[in-house]
Amino acid sequence: MDDEELRGALRRYAEPVPPGPRAGAIVVGRVARRRRRRRMAGIAAVALVVAGTAGVAAGLAGEDIAVDPADRAPRTVQLGGDWREIAESPLSPRVRAITAWTGEELVVLGGMEDGCPPDANCVAMGRPLADGAAYDPDADRWRPIAPAPQTLHDGTAVWTGSEVVVPGLEVTLAYDPVSDRWRELDAAPGGFDRGVRTDADVAFSAYQQEAGGGPTDWLLDPGSDRWTPLPRDPFGESYDRSLAWDGTRLWLVSMSVDHHGPAYDGSPSRLAVLEPGPGGIAAGTWRVVDESSPDLVYEQDAWWAGGRIVVTPGPYGGGVGRLYDPESGTWTELPDPGPTSSDPPCPLPAAGIGASWISGGGPGLVSTEEDATAQVPPCGGRTHIAVAAWAGDTLVLWGGFDEDLRPLTSGLAWTPTGR
């Protein structure tokens, strides 16, 4: 298949696909993305499918970092440091697990027992799982954790400061790593793709907002077990929606239905902000900031860091990192960091936001501290990675498949050095 044929195939397979629940498990979000990604991966043979990493380290998303404007000339950084093997985990091979970073441990929850790599010519789904484990990077030690009250996979998780919360269409689950206990909360009022901590609640957002209908995004107060709807965003039917919390307001990046189909090689997006009202963010009003922001591609998520919106490159490739400065109202395009070696790049799924770097998928990283990009070094011939998460300044990978498509239960860690 030549380049033109591949482009035509990608056009045919990139139409919007509405998300939907999967019976018998907690399934919340990235369904539309997962379906499209599987189609495109089968055409382009790219092993980049992963779900459930959007909630990793979400507790850091609202923490701003003071940055000297003089340090904000966009540049590419070459990072050092080598991948190192981590302790063997007690988990069986799996895909589509849910993950969260608690500030001390990386928690891996559930997933699917699946013998098929995402780009393989097979459809075996395996069985859903309820077990999990927690990894302490300082001690390089795993521990099994209590199994969840039901199976869970393909979702998002948010660390609240005391619990890992996993919203579900049948029941919302909260895990306390100190007591190693689960508790059940009310079912989520919708399927969610991502969650971010606000002042006292967790804001959960959906990948898609349908035309008309009721609320799309919701606040959860885990202490009172109360769900509160957020105002519908002003853009009507929307796709690839992503919320970021700046400490006071929620920012939204999304694509219109007209622009979503051709977003494989870049398409205009929109930017809005939810200003809080007298009763808080749930009583707020949306304000359109930019009706035609720079072109984005599928799964380019928004984050808040360093006093600006950071849009990270996504796993599809072809998208560059961009920054929006609310004070000046301007966008900045970040340079493509390019490969670090002749070896195949690391097929990194979205690892979320860490202390110094943000990963939206693929080998490209964006700094939380300056207007800079970097590249993850090759990670040893893995063709797929089951779990990727920032543990502070350290990037932890676990599971996936090797070059011979054999499932892995080993893991790697990398602590970037140099600026």
Keywords:
single chain, 419 residues, mainly beta, five-stranded mixed sheet, four-stranded antiparallel sheet, 29 strands, 7% helix, globular, disordered N terminus
Write a compact overview of the structure shown.
It is built from three helices and 29 strands.
In words, what does this structure look like?
Strand 8 (164-166) and strand 9 form a beta hairpin. Helix content is 7%, strand content 37%. Helix 1 runs antiparallel to helix 2. The protein has a domain at 3-185 and 309-414. A five-stranded mixed sheet has the order 1-26-25-24-23, with no helix packed on it. Strands 2-29-28-27 form a four-stranded antiparallel sheet, with no helix packed on it. It has helices spanning 3-13, 31-44, 257-260, and strands at 75-76, 84-85, 98-101, 106-112, 128-136, 141-145, 158-159, 164-166, 172-176, 181-185, 194-197, 202-205, 218-221, 226-229, 238-245, 250-256, 267-277, 280-296, 302-305, 308-311, 322-325, 330-333, 352-353, 357-359, 364-367, 372-375, 387-391, 394-401, 407-414. The protein has 419 residues and is mainly beta.
CA-atom Rg in angstroms: 20 Å
Outline the biggest β-sheet: 5 strands, mixed
The strand order across the widest sheet is 1-26-25-24-23
Distance separating the two termini: 40 Å
Strand content: 35-45%
Summed over residues and divided by their number, the pLDDT gives a mean of 82
Oligomer: single chain
The helix-and-strand class reads: mainly beta
Helical residues, percent: under 10%
Number of strands: 29
